[in-house]
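Sample pair:
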Amino acid sequence: MANGVGEDPPAEVLAEAAAAFGLLASPARLHIVWVLAHGESDVSGLAERVGGALPAVSQHLAKLKLAGLVRSRREGRRVVYLLDDPDVVTMVRWLVGKVAERAGHPAAERVRGLGA
């Protein structure tokens, strides 16, 4: 036990967590995850919401899906993307809310309230 905080996580767990944080380090991918934290969407809805081109948003979704942060399901001819891990939703909402709060952003209270 180091510093009374318990055992350190194994190296492979830290590497996987760092990879997930690395994916979220992209503002475009973080925006996509933020949108999906508030409800599912298809790629065209995401592209419109985050202001990205369809191919770019599709590539971001593929990376997020590969990392297990996003999943998809088919609805007829449409593919709908969603976050189904409540911990990822909580983490993203909390972090974005904290950053907005620290920056004194006028929308901080509204942003933080979405995570409640």
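Helices lie at 11-24, 27-36, 43-50, 54-66, 86-102, 108-113.
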